[in-house]
Request: fold
Amino acid sequence: MSRISRTLTTLLAAVLMAGAAGAAPALADHSQTNFFEASNELLTPSARARTFQTLEHLGVKALRVELYWYDVAPDPTSATRPNFEGTNPARYDWSLYDPILAEAQRLHWPVLLTVTSPAPRWATANHQAPYITRPDPKDFQELMTAVALHYGSEVSLYSVWNEPNHPAFLLPQFNANGTPASPRIYRGLYQAAYAGLQAAGLAHPRILFGETAPTGFDRVNVRREGALHDVAPLEFMREALCLDTHYRKSPSCGELQMSGYAHHAYTTAVPPTYHTPGADNVTIGTLSRLESALNLAARAHAIPGGLPIYLTEFGTQSLPNKQLGVPAAVQAEYNAIAEHIAWSNSRVAAFSQYLLKDDPIGGAPGASVHGGTVGFQTGLEYVSGQPKPLYSGWPIPLTVSRDGHKFALWGLARPATGATRVTVLVKAPHAKRYRTLKVVATNSLGYWSLVSSTPGETWRVRWTSPAGVKYEGPPIHAH
Reply:
């Protein structure tokens, strides 16, 4: 049995034990917010209306938006800070973001707003592009006050800095002696953001800490390897929370308040259940490492106890990305498996899809730290706009896990707004056509499960919305 089969079997053990063949066992009482990020299209005025229509069709019900400080700041290319009141929303240019948040509010979609780099030139320590070196906490605090005053109830949840453990977004990552530098810089920015939101009248801001990239290093030999490397996420977390390797907190640091820990649990061209080496790395298959670290940090009184995990950015890379991509049909399967892993973990409060349309192919992994571009091929569409199998699979994800002679199926009718019924199809080995396996009732959130002893080569799902829109997912193999 493959690693992926073993893990999914573990996740579904209770289902398999409880359900008779052909039955649809009760689902765990767990839901998660599913954020979608389509920044490239939503930030392009000519594509925005069409993109919102597409997202509605796909069943999107919550957005993640990255607000780039440089885009809204006055005179962002100046090395000298302009003379302006930094907490005054009227002094910023919100024109790129106002239409997005307004439409999300009209649709009643919660918005996770991640305020991030690049910073304006005048707010950085060295005034040099790409404007990510030691951003000024005081200026950032004033920005966060202005953001909260401007957007008010249009933002449901804030987050501070995209991937602050990655050298494409924050510098320096490491000190000259090879120890991490970015965690303490981030701590200062996070504290400034929290204070800025409180100054805007949010006594207890809903705000996420982290937004960490999945892998990196605890220490580097700067002389031999250079300093442009990611800090491993759990090492980053410990250093930002003033914890040593045994999770003992420095008495000089107080407990940070937060609503959850945000993480980007990307993996490489391997099954989602793959256990990435490195105890301080956290991919979708090793979420238990993050859970344990958060528990230890809470025990040290560095953070509140029982913090939920928000997987605020995720996607499975597909070909034509030759370094990290899997075949497009496999992308649809792996994406659903990853979502199922997240859904099965009661600690996970949110899961996200990063990109609607692929980026153009960029450089090899690591190119961004040297000023290059790394295109993400995690989209539901190719860069040409042609749909991938994931385009039809994302609205109605399906996983199939083999256990002996039985098959455990799990899925979601994402566009549904209440309990509904989905048709599960199976194609027997060597058969030419699909036949109906079962019509399954979902719960009120659209989730369903099924245990069957009927053998199959592939499975798929059909669902028709109350408005008559027909959805049919791609063929899915058992894992």
Summary: The chain has two domains: 1-30+397-479, 31-394. Residues 228 and 370 are 8 Å apart (CA to CA).
